[in-house]
Specification:
alpha+beta, Jelly Rolls, six-stranded mixed β-sheet, four-stranded antiparallel β-sheet, binds fe (ii) ion
Length: about 190
């Protein structure tokens, strides 16, 4: 277990340095993505049984496990474990965001704003060895069919992101996501208080 803690900690140290050196730029977030792909290549550090996905009877189809987060809530890393049937509308993050695959597949579709909402620009199937990187205003949606485990990393913890916009297709307008709650603690060596 210490090995996972050390590996995650070393990756987050590098990611802080990358952001400091390259800033919140396309090159910066792509370098962060590449560092997380490297972390995820240590497959033995992340046994699937440590990150069970919700059961069929659970209301939610995916769960987030917190792997890293700074004391000021910056640089948050999560493992997202899904049983499948996960779908989000097009949304931004208001901070940089990276998704890296580990097990299964997560289709990411990317959009630009248009007069009548959003229009898709491209897509990328996130799976082991690949990932996507987004600047704060970039728009994507995720689509997961079957069981999947992916890493999600953000410049600021999800609970702090209370101005993320999503496009509500049925109403034809932009709305604000509720901030995320119910994240499971998966950091090791933390004192409970
Ligand atoms: Fe997202």
């Amino acid at each position: 277990m210490q090995t996972r803690t050390d590996a995650v900690s070393a990756a987050m140290d590098d990611i802080r340095t990358i952001e400091a050196d390259l800033g919140v730029t396309r090159a910066g977030v792509e370098a962060i993505r590449d560092r997380l792909v490297e972390l995820s290549s240590n497959r033995e550090l992340f046994p699937l049984e440590d990150f069970p996905h919700p059961g069929e009877d659970d209301a939610q189809s995916s769960l987030l496990y917190r792997l890293a987060q700074d004391a000021d809530d910056r640089f948050a890393l999560y493992a997202q474990s899904s049983r499948g049937q996960v779908k989000t509308p097009a949304h931004n993050h208001t901070t940089w965001a990276v998704v890296v695959g580990f097990e299964g597949q997560e289709l990411n579709r990317f959009y630009e704003r248009s007069d009548d909402g959003v229009s898709q620009t491209h897509e990328h199937m996130v799976q082991a060895g690949t990932g996507v990187a987004m600047l704060p205003d970039d728009l994507h949606s995720i689509h997961i069919e079957g069981p999947a485990l992916n890493f999600h990393c953000y410049g600021l913890a999800l609970e702090r992101l209370d101005e993320r916009e999503y496009y509500n297709e049925s109403e034809g307008n932009w709305k604000i996501f509720k901030s995320v709650s119910g994240i499971r603690e998966a950091r090791t060596g933390l004192q409970s208080c």
